[in-house]
Specification:
Structural class of chain A: alpha+beta
Largest sheet of chain A: 5 strands, mixed
Largest sheet of chain B: 5 strands, antiparallel
Oligomer: heterodimer
Number of domains of chain A: 2
Distance between the termini of chain A: 55 Å
Number of domains of chain B: 3
CATH class of the largest domain in chain A: Alpha Beta
Radius of gyration of chain A: 16 Å
Number of strands of chain B: 14
CATH topology of the largest domain in chain B: Uridine Diphospho-n-acetylenolpyruvylglucosamine Reductase, domain 3
Number of helices of chain A: 5
Helix content of chain A: 25-40%
Order of helices and strands of chain A: EEHEEEHHHH
Strand content of chain B: 15-25%
CATH superfamily of the largest domain in chain A: Beta-grasp domain
Distance between the termini of chain B: 42 Å
CATH class of the largest domain in chain B: Alpha Beta
Largest interface: A-B, 32 and 29 residues
CATH architecture of the largest domain in chain B: 2-Layer Sandwich
Radius of gyration of chain B: 19 Å
């Protein structure tokens, strides 16, 4: 099948790539654009490891065709940090040890970013529902939820970067 | 995935022409949360995929005081529950749209796709039926309408012909004294498939029920309209005995099977429980001091 030239904006940069109809956005990101931060998990939309933000909405990139993103904006986990400077969400994941094997982490970070973009002060219950589409089979959910609460608190305090150790957590 | 051609038409006519060319080998792509999974598994192998999301009619969500809601087939769930005017008038539809999958799924999946996929457990379908929704179908010669309760004919099969597409659902505007609710039973709170789903819409006068619609999901090969329960409720006060009897009548209308998610006997019991609760939830929404959901 012939490849089509697609133009999109990925992590703020204009990007062009060639894509077959049968290639998913996940395949394009990983295999064509070498953005391997986005992980392949279940390929059925159940695990959320491949989460990206497409035109401002959180989606599973395994359930999007590459051709669908013509003219779209895509944000992946690579777009979070500025160079080596981690954003509060990433800092909070480290501080809370909110990762074990790490495969689910990019998806959780992107899903948490999508939540905090629309709700800067989520309750624990809201966080748990918002992250229900992301599975962690090392079962570290509590730490992940605490990390998102910490990151939200830091961001509300107007700290662009989480540089100081986070003490305790907001109830 | 297998090889296929991809098309992104911008009008219904263009899509109809593609269907005329490719016939049964073509599939419409809305949110892709069913179709892409089916294609990857090889259970659907269309030679032509028609992306419906650039067709403005299929992306339209519009509320008209005279004709009610038009819900384009490709409108994702998130746009339904984030629309306050829609949410306040069609709370039963919003209940269902908020329950489907995860955030990742609801940001893509459409109610039109949920209907056209033909699953007996589809969450949005009992809600649509209770609200009196009618499917608008475009074909090569003309547009036709089919009540949503007649749209699914068997698991995975609908009234859509190979050269037709679902444009959207027209849902009448509920009067001020009417409300709706959808409840489902799943073993988990999120990310699960209904073991039983019950959609109700009720028109009330004070504590008395003037008219009711009840539709059941996941308890038969297609969604089931619980006509006897609805007829029984007309003119009754929604007291405990009435609710219980209505639940019993709804359970009698169900034709569930035993499977890994629940036995037939359990499902029948849950139909009666959810019918009662959905009626109570709907009545509560009509009380003057009621706020939110």
């Amino acid at each position: 099948m012939a490849k089509t030239r697609i133009e999109a904006t990925i992590n703020g940069e204009p990007v062009e790539f060639l894509c077959e109809p049968r290639q998913s956005l996940l395949e394009v990101l990983r295999d064509v654009l070498n953005l391997t931060g986005t992980k392949e998990g279940c390929l059925t939309g159940d695990c959320g490891a491949c989460s990206v933000i497409l035109n401002g909405r959180l989606v599973c990139s395994c359930l999007v065709l590459g051709l669908e993103v013509a003219g779209a904006t895509v944000e992946t986990v690579e777009g979070l940090a500025a160079g080596t400077e981690l954003v509060p969400l990433q800092q909070a994941f480290l501080q809370q040890a909110a990762l074990q094997c790490g495969i689910c982490t990019p998806g959780f970070l992107v899903a948490a970013k999508a939540l905090l973009d629309s709700n800067p002060n989520p309750s624990e219950t809201e966080i748990r529902y918002a992250l229900a589409g992301n599975l962690c089979r090392c079962t570290g959910y509590d730490k992940i939820v605490r990390a998102v609460m910490d990151a939200a608190a830091l961001m509300r305090q107007g700290q662009g970067r989480a540089s100081s150790p986070m003490q305790g957590r907001e109830a | 995935m297998h090889e296929f051609s991809y098309h992104a038409p911008t009008s219904v006519n263009e899509a109809i022409n593609l269907l005329a060319t490719h016939g049964a080998k073509a599939r419409l792509l809305c949110g892709g949360t069913d179709l892409i999974i089916q294609m990857r598994a090889g259970t659907q192998q269309p030679s032509c995929v028609i992306d419906a999301k650039r067709i403005s009619d299929l992306r339209r969500l519009s509320l008209d005081p005279a004709t009610g809601l038009f819900l384009g087939a490709a409108v994702p769930c998130v746009e339904i529950y984030q629309n306050e005017a829609v949410a306040s008038r069609y709370p039963g539809l919003v209940d269902a749209a908020k329950l489907i999958g995860s955030v990742q799924i609801r940001d893509r999946a459409s109610v039109g796709g949920n209907l056209a996929n033909g699953s007996p457990a589809a969450d949005s379908v009992p809600a649509l039926i209770a609200l009196g929704a009618v499917a608008r179908i475009a074909g090569p010669d003309r547009e036709r309408t089919v009540p949503v309760e007649k749209f699914v004919v068997a698991p995975g099969r609908t009234v859509l012909k190979a050269d037709e597409l679902l444009v959207g659902m027209q849902i009448p505007l509920p009067p001020a004294n009417a409300s709706s609710a959808y409840l489902r039973f799943t073993p988990r709170n999120e990310m699960d498939i209904a073991v039983v789903g019950v959609g109700v819409a009720v028109k009330m006068s004070g504590e008395g029920c003037l008219e009711a619609q009840i539709a059941l999901g996941a308890v038969g090969p297609t969604q089931i309209v619980a006509k006897e329960a609805a007829t029984y409720l007309a003119g009754k006060r929604l007291d405990e005995a009435t609710l219980e009897h209505a639940g019993r009548l709804a359970a009698q209308a169900a034709t569930p099977i035993d499977d890994t998610r629940g036995t037939a006997e359990f499902r029948r019991h849950i139909v009666s429980v959810l019918t009662r609760r959905a009626l109570l939830a709907t009545a509560a929404r009509l009380r003057p001091n009621h706020s939110g959901n």
